[in-house]
């Protein structure tokens, strides 16, 4: 431990209790990685605040000592967002994990950032409510807001940014602000809610979130439809969307991934390109929607369609979908997974998925394609041996080809995972001169570049390394 | 005309054609007011660009001459947004009024900022599509994006910010950027779409908008339900929302306003507190939704309910609602209208509307209450004689009481009209320390404070007066 670190630990222990400050190697290692393939780097110190005031004091100290700050939820990020490449202090929000208030009449909930989405949904169930954003991993809501997470239900309910009514944010200088209010809409002032959601800890740390929730739908119906080709499946989705059928979930799983799912989840689903779908609504409306959907998928050479009415079968289906990433990881011991995350205009989706599958085959890397195709967002799940430089190079090249394909068609390099360190190199290509605006905003709000430095935007200046 | 103005006119005529630059008194007067009661102030020069490049050149010239810039659509703003209190150049976008591209497969449309919403809807109709945001006035889409407009359909389809996929923006220094892309969602970079929407010309001028559109719903049903009291009507809305019925429009019109509507629109609707509702969906689903709605309104002592199935009757109903502001204006010749615009959490709505009605009566000012109650947003339409200082003072006091009531309940001073000059005084109370963040953003993007100065935020520095 350097003298600088020692003096900072001393200072932190003056404002927090001893057990809220750790320099333990194992603890630091837990905060030196996420769920991605990105290289590890350890924080010098990990702190565990219990309040916004704690966070404010930590921020002020970081300014005094000119030390970087990285906020940390559960480490489920996929692009190295929480890895502290400049070391410094990691703020772990696990001690701020309370559901503070459920305002059922307003369909709002107030939570601390360390609450996970399943924890929230368990609480909400008692009120007949649910939180809609579902990224697969049981991430914290603070982390989900920081990356503008989304997932299977976004096609109907929107992404994380659409759910955030208000954030309590601690700024770089320790000031505590609120970015919104409890009204359903507002035209007052600049849209700080939207700016801070997706800012990945580079503009401030969230200490409280007020989120929109929904009534559990009266009726839910899930279906699996298998197709001759990925192309048919994707074209069917495009037709469903264009027909205005209010589908709640529509996920593509390619045949390779169906095999992997069957192996891992002990299902015996057909190993063909498949759409996992879900519909929410009233009984009569749902019935009519589903009849219409059936006509459409048949027009697109659907091979078979199966409905899951009861809760257990439906949960099994979505578990199989959610566990797909883990199915690959367990299926290829020793390998790491790279997940691409482009999102394209829906008219470009079929070709984009086809292109990704072709490239995956051409590189000879094991992996599959899955995606939230209702949004035009899909992932290539690519397995690679990190000790094999050739494989890693191939995976990186594949990722780049898929990203460039999307950007050339006015899509985005990341639909839901965020920039972190992995998509930093595409920011200038994707945003052009708008990146300068982002840099100006970062500089205005974090002039010493201490908040999760070199994520999203890379400024010249930065704090000292401990 | 001052020497400074003369030399600027010269310079503008070098970069634009002569007929794109006007110092005509009548033209300047047209650009010196909006639809509000706020005092007139004339621009020194009005310019009519035809391209982003024109706007970029104008911006650069404004920097050289240190002259304020105000963008202008059709002047339908309600808080003095487009009134150039610091004179300077007004950029009128009426020559940039083309629908550039309808991407029906992607449910997207690309337009210039001077296109109006009815103009867009006429074009979209040919494709079975419609644009959802409906603020009443036939505003330009550039203006609607600048104020984050919304209206009757926002309860289902969202506000203007929810529809904007990309903006082409000319910044203060003349740089042209794009704030988004064509993908349905993105976690790449800071959310510039959201930041620029609602920025009221204070951060840049919009020269192109890519907007989300929707398929015209298969079935539409409209209804009028009248109640014994405003309170019953509002409580019914709260119950409908909590039941999760996907209502597409739900508007409150109080008894005074129903009278005014009947006078103006030659209808003979019951002069009781009334909800105007609309439902969109498939036939079977709609039927079930409406049955459920009927049960709920009956629980809230609904006096009568009438359905309008056919297009003509439905249009008549919505015309009566949309023309209400004009109904008051025509009903009180010589008086000006002040429109309040608070939005509160839905659980506070009934009391807030009751409070506003009470205060309106207590002040003895003529007027009524209408509102997009599904969002918690309502307006007191207050008539006042601008030559009677006492009446004006009363109206201002009423507005302030209603705003403070909303802010004390974590609502907002403006749900959809925007800040302009009228809500500037409430920004510090509403946003607290977050206003400093807004000021930093403004300063970072418009360091000389030339873009619509003193709207939304008030900085120290500003350009020269011509």
UniProtKB/TrEMBL annotation, chains A, B:
For the protein in the UniProt heading, the enzyme class is oxidoreductase
Q: Which residues form the FAD-binding PCMH-type domain?
A: 39-216
Q: For this protein, what is any one GO molecular function term?
A: FAD binding
Question: What GO biological process term is on the record, naming one?
Answer: lactate catabolic process
User: What does this protein need as cofactor?
Assistant: FAD
EC number assigned by the record: 1.1.2.4
Q: Which InterPro entries match?
A: FAD-bd_oxidored_4_C, FAD-bd_PCMH, FAD-bd_PCMH-like_sf, FAD-bd_PCMH_sub2, FAD-linked_Oxase-like_C, Oxid_FAD_bind_N, Vanillyl_alc_oxidase_C-sub2
Pfam families named in the record: FAD-oxidase_C, FAD_binding_4
Provide the alphabetized UniProt keywords: FAD, Flavoprotein, Oxidoreductase, Transit peptide
Q: Which SUPFAM superfamilies match?
A: FAD-binding/transporter-associated domain-like (SSF56176), FAD-linked oxidases, C-terminal domain (SSF55103)
Which protein family is it in? Answer: Belongs to the FAD-binding oxidoreductase/transferase type 4 family.
This chain's protein is named D-lactate dehydrogenase (cytochrome)
From which organism does this entry originate?
Answer: Sporosarcina limicola
Give the lineage: Bacteria, Bacillati, Bacillota, Bacilli, Bacillales
């Amino acid at each position: 431990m350097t003298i600088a670190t020692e003096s900072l630990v001393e200072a932190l222990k003056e404002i927090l209790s001893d057990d809220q400050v750790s320099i333990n190697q194992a603890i630091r290692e837990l905060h030196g990685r996420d769920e991605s393939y990105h290289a590890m780097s350890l924080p010098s110190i990990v702190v565990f605040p219990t309040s916004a005031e704690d966070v404010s004091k930590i921020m002020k100290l970081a300014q005094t000592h000119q030390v970087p700050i990285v906020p940390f939820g559960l480490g489920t990020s996929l692009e190295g967002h929480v890895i502290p490449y400049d070391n410094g202090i990691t703020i772990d929000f696990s001690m701020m994990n309370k559901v503070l208030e459920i305002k059922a009449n307003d369909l709002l909930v107030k939570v601390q950032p360390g609450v996970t989405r399943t924890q929230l949904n368990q609480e909400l169930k008692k009120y007949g409510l649910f939180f809609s954003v579902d990224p697969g991993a049981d991430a914290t809501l603070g982390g989900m807001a920081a990356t503008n997470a989304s997932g299977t239900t976004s096609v109907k309910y929107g992404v994380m940014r659409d759910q955030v009514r208000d954030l309590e944010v601690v700024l770089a200088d320790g000031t505590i602000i609120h970015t919104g209010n409890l009204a359903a809409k507002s035209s007052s002032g600049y849209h700080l809610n939207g700016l801070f959601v997706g800012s990945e800890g580079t503009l401030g740390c969230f200490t409280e979130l007020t989120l929109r929730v929904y009534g559990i739908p009266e009726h839910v119906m899930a279906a699996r439809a298998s197709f001759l080709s990925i192309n048919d499946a994707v074209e069917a989705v495009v037709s469903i969307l264009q027909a205005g059928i209010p589908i709640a979930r529509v996920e593509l799983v390619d045949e390779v991934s169906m095999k992997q799912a069957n192996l891992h989840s002990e299902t015996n689903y057909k190993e063909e390109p498949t759409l996992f779908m879900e519909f929410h609504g009233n009984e009569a409306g749902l019935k009519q929607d589903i009849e219409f959907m059936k006509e459409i998928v048949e027009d697109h050479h659907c091979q078979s369609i199966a409905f899951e009415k009861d809760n257990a079968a439906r949960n099994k289906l979505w578990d199989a979908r959610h566990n797909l990433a883990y199915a690959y990881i367990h299926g290829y011991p020793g390998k790491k997974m790279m997940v691409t995350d482009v999102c394209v205009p829906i008219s470009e989706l079929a070709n984009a998925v086809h292109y990704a599958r072709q490239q995956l085959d051409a590189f000879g890397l094991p992996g599959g394609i899955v995606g939230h195709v209702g949004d035009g967002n899909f992932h290539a799940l690519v397995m690679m041996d990190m000790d094999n430089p050739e494989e890693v190079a191939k995976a990186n090249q594949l990722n780049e080809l898929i990203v460039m394909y999307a950007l050339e068609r006015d899509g985005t390099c990341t639909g839901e995972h965020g920039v972190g360190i992995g998509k930093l190199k595409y920011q200038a290509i994707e945003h052009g001169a708008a990146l300068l605006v982002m840099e100006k905003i970062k500089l205005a709000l974090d002039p010493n570049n201490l908040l999760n430095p070199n994520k999203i935007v890379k400024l010249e200046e930065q704090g000292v390394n401990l």
